[in-house]
């Protein structure tokens, strides 16, 4: 059985991007990780009466969870000795200390955040992709959008303007910047502000920002309110872009490697099923999100990949260093599970 809770909101307020954001991210990762390490609520992949090992997964309730739910329905996890519980209240940022403290066994985190965490000495291990670019400009699940009547038709025209991203220090900021760079613009001139994805359509339509980086289903919502895509930053970042990964702690990998292997194998089987049954994926999405069946039928679904792209990680580390999020490049062999 799944234990599912809904995300209730994002605490962030619009904040102009500064280099100091890197320090804030590092402080958040390190400080909450240290605080959480003393917790007595560790799950540590507990056993159950039916002989299955219960694992807790933390992720926002977005479309990339559909294969997970389908895998449970189809008995894929059970065939690998696993029983899954899903926590959708732990945010992507607070999931790092939660994983390190053993409160959850696996969580989704965007690859840039995991790179920063590794640079700060946090023992996170990327196990398998959670979401990936489709690799198709014009048909991806993330895009740089502007108001239809803005007169802006290309990313370069956003030079010096205010652009929204959901988090200043994650892959969304990198995607927005790279869309402008790829179009020959000065991405350093962008005035990035932090606005949660659900608030982006209103921010665009009300003219509070000139543009925004947004992903599905909020991309479809923004387009429904008149926004138009002008850039596809995921495809500009890397040809084979792992956007986010299911990750765990190095401690769990050491203590229970068989659980980590079983989880990765089950996820890959879930993706194989999802690739062949997209109609079931779309039908599942409204059952655990607030996305309607009508919207679920139209959104662009994330790509499903079996391997975390080393090439993408190298490029994202380079962008993070160039943008001041990190000072040194972490050992990616220590981050990405072989």
Automatic annotation (TrEMBL):
Start and end residues of each Solute-binding protein family 3/N-terminal domain: 54-281
Pfam families the record matches: NMT1
Domain of life: Bacteria
InterPro entries membership: Solute-binding_3/MltF_N, SsuA/THI5
SUPFAM superfamilies found in the cross-reference section: Periplasmic binding protein-like II (SSF53850)
Family as reported in the entry's similarity comment: Belongs to the bacterial solute-binding protein SsuA/TauA family.
Protein name: Solute-binding protein family 3/N-terminal domain-containing protein
Source species of the chain: Micromonospora maris
Lineage: Bacteria, Bacillati, Actinomycetota, Actinomycetes, Micromonosporales
């Amino acid at each position: 059985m799944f234990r599912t809770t809904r995300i209730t909101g994002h605490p962030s307020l619009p904040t102009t991007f500064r280099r100091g954001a890197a320090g804030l991210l590092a402080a958040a990762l390190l400080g909450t990780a240290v605080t959480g390490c003393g917790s007595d609520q560790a799950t540590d992949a507990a056993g159950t009466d039916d002989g299955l090992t219960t694992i807790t997964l933390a992720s926002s309730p977005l479309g990339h969870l559909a294969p997970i739910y389908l895998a449970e329905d189809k008995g894929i996890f059970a065939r690998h000795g696993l029983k899954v519980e899903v926590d959708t209240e732990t945010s992507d940022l607070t999931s790092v200390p939660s994983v390190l403290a053993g409160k959850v066994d696996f969580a989704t985190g965007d690859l840039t955040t995991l790179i920063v965490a590794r640079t700060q000495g946090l023992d996170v291990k990327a196990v398998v992709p959670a979401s990936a670019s489709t690799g198709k400009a014009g048909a991806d699940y993330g895009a740089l959008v502007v108001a239809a009547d803005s007169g802006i038709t290309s990313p370069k025209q956003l030079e010096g303007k205010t652009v929204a991203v959901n988090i200043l220090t994650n892959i969304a900021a990198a995607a927005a910047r790279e869309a402008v760079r790829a179009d020959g613009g000065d991405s350093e001139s962008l005035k990035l502000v932090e606005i949660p994805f659900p608030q982006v359509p209103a921010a665009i339509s009300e003219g509070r920002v000139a543009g925004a980086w947004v992903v599905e289903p909020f991309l479809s919502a923004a387009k429904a309110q008149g926004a138009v895509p002008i850039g596809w930053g995921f495809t500009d970042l890397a040809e084979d872009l792992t956007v986010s990964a299911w990750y765990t702690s190095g401690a769990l990998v050491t203590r229970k490697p068989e659980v980590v292997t079983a989880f990765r194998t089950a996820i890959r089987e879930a993706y194989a099923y999802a690739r062949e049954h997209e109609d079931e994926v779309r039908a599942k999405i409204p059952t655990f999100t607030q996305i309607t069946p009508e919207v679920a039928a139209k959104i662009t679904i994330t790509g499903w990949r079996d391997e975390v792209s080393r090439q993408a990680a190298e490029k994202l580390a380079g962008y993070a260093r160039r943008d001041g999020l990190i000072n040194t490049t972490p050992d990616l062999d220590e981050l990405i599970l072989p």
